[in-house]
Design brief:
heterodimer; A: 260 residues; 9 helices; 0% strand; globular; B: 248 residues; alpha/beta; Rossmann fold; 2 domains; 6-stranded mixed sheet; 4-stranded antiparallel sheet; 8 helices
Chain lengths: 260, 248
């Protein structure tokens, strides 16, 4: 291939990527301005709280408890190589709260909520329900997008907090019942070792990840192409984008909180 | 009155509207006919501002469409969508009363529900349908709910996008009669797009034939059969031979 052709192709790809980033950024800005501007739709917000928050609890709890338990086993087995088995409570606590809790909850929300929002809004677009909203003098950004993103912004930090606690409880259960740790000492070590910044970073990450998950679901739903294929593509793209953005944001936030 | 003046719209290389000119007098029922993919729905959505034309102007009662308060502009319209476009998550009565439950036309919930039930009755549906979800209704019932929603706020202008598509002939006749009755009763300006000639004869005061992005013929429905226009003749008689290519 001619080097100039290759360069042109790379240039086109870079421009397309930048245009996509620009479109998502404009969509996010529009979402936040519509969140602040009346009319407000409390019923839609309450339904979104239920869908995103309450109904995600079982999957978040199961993910956290198994991860906490597995983490305890791994740390015990790994620590045994250099006689450091006693650090299980501390590493489980810091691992769950700083990293695994927010990331795994974020990814589970991306899988469950982002896909659901994208499929729902894309279907509404394909069946002209979005057009119908406009003809009924209702702004889809205010009626569909803003309540979902706001609900995710509010509920995902709570889910992360719950996930952190359940993950630590999973580690505690394994450590106390399988690895013969003293229950009171385990709890004391956990509480003593965690710092306020650990918890704050966990909750802030949750807020970012929730916002990303819902925004990506809404964006790809609203951009959906026609037909079943369009809905499928919107759903797949939304989950991919949300997952990658969550992991990238996690890296940046970890740097901001703990590298200073 | 609705006036479309030299409206152009393209999607990529596909030039859908290529200088559309059309006038719909106030209180009249205009039916736009034409083959699939000729831009009928695009023309209708351009008036509502759901699609922005590339060039040309659209006027409603002499004022540019979309100028001024958009909510007030849209409040003058009702629209029946091709597939009904009912909101899956809301019961039928909330679909019908959607505009009456929020925004500038907001009414108390009980009043909005009463109006919804009255509109459902007007389109031949019993009150017990009100609390059902759209997915629990047949296609014909969904169309009638869509029609009830389109007229719920008593708009001055009503658009009907393929109102009989997917319905059996009897239900199509019911919908056509309802549309005609409602338009006459409300004195509304109506714009219907269809390729169902039975609908055309039942609904239209005037007919416009859209092909290749322009209006090929327009006139009163009574003159349609003797128009002498080869495009219109081929279309209304459903002939494969003629100026309209069968394979597009």
């Amino acid at each position: 291939m001619n080097p100039l052709d290759l360069l042109a192709r790379l240039g086109r790809m870079a421009l397309a990527a930048l245009a996509s980033i620009g479109r998502v950024a404009l969509f996010a800005i529009s979402t936040f301005t519509n969140m602040l501007r009346p009319p407000y739709y409390p019923r839609e917000f309450a339904l979104s709280l239920l869908q995103i928050g309450w109904l995600s609890l079982p999957v978040v709890a199961l993910t956290a408890v198994f991860t906490g338990g597995a983490l305890a086993l791994q740390i015990y087995a790994g620590g045994a190589r250099f006689n450091a088995e006693a650090v299980v409570p501390q590493i489980v606590a810091i691992g769950m709260v700083r990293e695994l809790g927010p990331v795994l909850v974020g990814l589970m929300i991306a899988a469950r909520v982002t896909s659901s929002i994208a499929a729902e809004i894309a279907t509404m677009k394909v069946t002209e329900q979005i057009d119908a909203l406009v003809t009924l003098s209702t702004n889809p950004m205010q009626y569909l997008v803003a309540p979902r993103v706001l609900a995710a912004l509010v509920t995902v930090p709570v889910l992360v907090g719950i996930g952190d606690i359940i993950g630590i409880a999973g580690g505690y259960t394994v450590a106390v019942h399988n690895l013969d740790f003293n229950a009171a000492a385990y709890l004391k070590n956990t509480v003593d070792f965690l710092e306020p910044l650990d918890v704050i970073s966990s909750l802030v990450k949750g807020a970012f990840f929730g916002t990303i998950a819902a925004t990506m679901g809404c964006y790809y739903g609203m951009q959906s192409g026609r037909g079943a294929q369009g809905v499928g593509r919107a759903t797949k793209s939304s989950v991919e984008a949300a997952a990658v953005l969550i992991l990238a944001t996690n890296f940046v936030l970890t740097g901001v909180f703990f590298s200073l | 009155m609705i006036k479309m003046d030299n409206v152009h719209k393209a999607f990529g290389d596909n030039r859908v509207l290529q200088g559309l000119n059309l006038e719909i007098p106030k209180g009249s029922s205009m039916v736009i006919i034409g083959g699939s993919g000729t831009g009928k729905s695009v023309a209708l959505k351009c008036v509502l501002g759901l699609i922005t034309p590339d060039s040309g102007e659209i006027f409603v009662d002499g004022k540019p469409a979309g100028a001024g308060d958009r909510d007030a502009f849209l409040a003058r319209f009702g629209m029946l969508f091709q597939g009904g476009a009912l909101f899956d998550s809301l019961p039928v009565w909330q679909n019908v009363a959607f505009r009456l439950l929020r925004g500038q036309l907001k009414r108390p919930v009980e009043e909005a529900r009463a109006i919804a039930i009255e509109k459902l009755r007007r389109v031949g549906l019993k009150p017990d349908v009100a609390d059902r979800l759209p997915a629990e209704l047949s296609g014909g019932m969904q169309k009638r709910v869509g029609l009830a929603r389109a007229i719920a706020a008593e708009p001055e202008i009503i658009f009907f996008d393929e109102p009989t598509t997917g319905l059996d002939p009897i239900m199509s006749g019911v919908i056509n009669d309802l549309i005609r009755e409602i338009v006459v009763e409300m004195g509304a300006t109506a714009m219907t797009i269809t390729h169902d000639m039975t609908s055309v004869r039942a609904i239209a005061d005037n007919v416009a034939m859209l092909h290749d992005g322009v209006i090929k013929w327009t006139g009163p429905v009574a003159e349609m059969d003797d128009s002498g226009d080869p495009y219109l003749d081929q279309f209304i008689h459903g002939r494969a031979e003629g100026p309209i290519e069968a394979v597009r």
